[in-house]
């Protein structure tokens, strides 16, 4: 694994625009085109379903399963199951003591639709925690892709976390896979440094803009003699037309423009191009579970 570029594409199968709407148009309408694109390109990835998304969209889960891609878990209702990194109005984090039951329930809901237990997880917004990782370990998950590299800035490659602090290396069986961020660029976001996280640059500015950050990070890793593992997160709603605002209940929700800009055909076109560009670099593409097992085996 050390000399090649390993890529994990993950899709967070959730309500449209994250927690900002109650709709599943992305899950309903983008699963098939994405699976078809993967098949055409000869690659595989992981689709992380919230328990609610799986129960409401069993045909989407079945399609992913039949295609040979992985069905993972993404919490129960796209909720904050880990440590809050920045506040979002109306989104209240679970208490640490609530996390084990919530993750167990989410796992059960996905399993009921999938027919087997999911073994890969990603926390909504990449907000993980030690309580979350211990819960996943207890349920025999093999991979978690929640580590936000842009925020913690300590782990640049996969690792087995510590049960005392999920951001540190330890002896847990689960493999933590950090999410790609540009650790070379000069951040203009003091403290949070969220601008290092390059989602959703592929659709807001295009693949060429994203590739500059990818190439810089690959160079950064190779100069340090570290393996190159690129883990990306996307959402099915990015690949359908998305409204700039939604009215439901008693309010109109208008997300920041970067969340909805370039969704639909542009996103699909740029994503296809991104796959080609990564292939040109000699990348290989993996499901999260397969990657984690290979990673663990290579360390034994």
Task: Give a verbal description of the structure.
The protein is an alpha/beta fold and 300 residues long. The chain has one domain (5-299): Glycoside hydrolase/deacetylase (TIM Barrel). It is 38% helix and 13% strand. The protein is built from eleven helices and ten strands. The protein has helices at residues 25-41, 51-56, 58-67, 99-114, 130-138, 149-152, 201-204, 207-223, 257-260, 265-280, 288-299, and strands at 5-13, 46-49, 70-73, 120-121, 143-144, 175-176, 228-234, 246-248, 251-253, 283-286. Strand 1 (5-13), helix 1 (25-41) and strand 2 (46-49) form a beta-alpha-beta unit. Helix 1 (25-41) runs parallel beside helix 3 and helix 4 packs across helix 5 (130-138). GO terms for molecular function: hydrolase activity, acting on carbon-nitrogen (but not peptide) bonds. Residues 15-229 form the NodB homology domain. Pfam families: Polysacc_deac_1. This is NodB homology domain-containing protein.
In short:
The protein is 38% helix and 13% strand. The chain has 300 residues and is an alpha/beta fold. Residues 15-229 form the NodB homology domain.
List keywords for this structure.
single chain, 300 residues, alpha/beta, TIM Barrel, three-stranded parallel beta sheet, globular, Glyco_hydro/deAcase_b/a-brl
């Amino acid at each position: 694994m050390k000399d090649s570029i390993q890529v994990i594409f993950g899709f967070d199968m959730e309500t449209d625009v994250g927690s900002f709407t109650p709709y599943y148009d992305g899950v309903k309408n983008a699963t098939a085109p994405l699976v078809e694109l993967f098949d055409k390109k000869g690659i595989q990835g992981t689709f992380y379903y919230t328990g609610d998304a799986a129960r409401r969209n069993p045909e989407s889960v079945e399609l992913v399963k039949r295609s040979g891609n992985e069905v993972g878990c993404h919490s129960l209702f796209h909720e904050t199951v880990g440590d809050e990194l920045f506040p979002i109005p109306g989104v209240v984090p679970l208490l640490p003591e609530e996390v084990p039951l919530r993750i167990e329930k989410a796992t059960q809901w996905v399993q009921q639709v999938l027919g087997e237990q999911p073994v890969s997880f990603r926390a909504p917004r990449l907000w993980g925690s030690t309580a979350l990782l211990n819960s996943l370990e207890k349920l025999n998950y093999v991979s978690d892709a929640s580590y936000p590299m842009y925020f913690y800035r300590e782990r640049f490659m996969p690792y087995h976390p510590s049960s005392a602090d999920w951001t540190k290396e330890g002896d847990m069986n689960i493999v933590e896979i950090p999410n790609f961020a540009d650790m070379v660029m000069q951040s203009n976001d003091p403290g949070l440094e969220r601008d290092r996280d390059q989602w959703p640059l592929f659709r807001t500015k295009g693949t060429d803009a994203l590739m500059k950050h990818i190439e810089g990070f690959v160079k950064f890793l190779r100069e340090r003699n570290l393996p190159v593992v690129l883990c990306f997160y996307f959402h099915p709603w990015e690949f359908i037309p998305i409204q700039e605002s939604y009215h439901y209940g008693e309010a109109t929700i208008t997300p920041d423009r970067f969340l909805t800009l370039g969704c639909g055909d542009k996103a699909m076109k740029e994503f296809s191009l991104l796959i080609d560009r990564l292939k040109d670099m000699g990348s290989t593409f993996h499901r999260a579970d397969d990657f984690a097992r290979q990673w663990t085996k290579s360390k034994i």
